[in-house]
UniProtKB/TrEMBL annotation:
Source organism of this protein record: Pseudonocardia oroxyli
Keywords: Decarboxylase, Lyase, Pyridoxal phosphate
GO biological process, one term: L-glutamate catabolic process
Descriptive protein name: Glutamate decarboxylase
Enzymatic reactions: L-glutamate + H(+) = 4-aminobutanoate + CO2
Amino acid sequence: MPRNDAPIAANPIFGSEPITVPRNELSADGLDSDVAYQIVHDELMLDGNARLNLATFVTTWGEPHVRRLMADSLDKNMIDKDEYPRTAELEQRCVNMLGDLWHAPEPVGCSTTGSSEACMLAGLALKRRWQHRRRADGLSTERPNIVMGVNVQICWEKFANYWDVEARLVPMSGERLHLGAAEAVALCDENTIGVVAVLGSTFDGSYEPVAEICAALDRLQAERGLDIPVHVDGASGAMIAPFCDPDLVWDFQLPRVASINTSGHKYGLVFPGVGWALWRDRAALPEDLVFRVNYLGGDMPTFALNFSRPGGQVIAQYYQFLRLGRAGYTRVQQVCREVATSLSAGIAALGCFDLLTDGSQLPVFAFVVKPGEPFSVFDVSAALREAGWLVPAYTFPKDREDVAALRIVVRNGFSHDLAGLLLDDLTRALERLRKQTAPVRGSEAAGFAHGT
């Protein structure tokens, strides 16, 4: 028989990979697309499994239709509303739907790249409204301040730093791990542009008392004439409370609430990144913050820190609103809460942890190691990481730095079954950790920055 001396093309992609992959400079000739893809794909395998990341609030699971719509929209620029008028229309419909959900009298708003940008925009609107009032009264606009709890997400500290606003942070004290009404009012004066109330603290998942804060500010206005608005940072809670806590009054039903933000890519159930900023009416958003451009083919108002950004996330948000409706969102968020509360109860039953929260507000809970145990929260976090779980361990802010906690975020896609597997792995880890004579890891081993 004739011999076939042609070389066998076994594993052609790996056989074509260069000995040295250019990682920090452009190669001279580039690589075949299949080879380049395989190199990038393989390196990404070294990342953690996003579904097992119980530190992040960001959506890690979505239906195939969400992925398909986002893929279909990769080339759509959200800012180009003249060229993509239907995408712009879907954005406005989302604003209207959120306005209806949050009881806005005349909703005005926009999409953003996430809650951080939305908070920046809301803070700018608070500062500009304060400046307008002060100038109208012939008063100084120097030294504005904003009042918030020390537990706010770091974007608020960035806002204060970037826009020259004094951040007046209310510390934690005793069992109060977030902002209280009396403590907020005590820091307010004529230079306060607003108070930030967080509906769902990232430290422990608890709601701040928005209605109590507004009532305390009402009393302050009656006594001292200071009219101070409230912004609700609802990055997570603004998409939980309307469905799981419909009787809780926290939104635009309170006249003092001027603006609300949320993250569409958190409990809005969209992949990152999209956020939403809404104001109760046009008076709450100063007109001089809105820019109008016409060089994309039409007169378009814009209020954003970013300009060009993808439209796929906004489209996916509209899909989710259509797909789920109030009943669907209620079911999804209630299941998340049920998983959180049952898992927290299971962890408490292990006997070596104390719960700070139980997941009955945000489906998020924090817990600490009981005194006398021979391990730290950082030991527990490291042990769970060995099994693939990312459960962050961290210390609390100033005045409660003695608290070192673990936190679990339950999102859509983290099921009762996965929670059971996590509890099994935690139980096995404790068998080993309880044999230690003393904690091994301190806070320097946490590897977790709470502001991220």
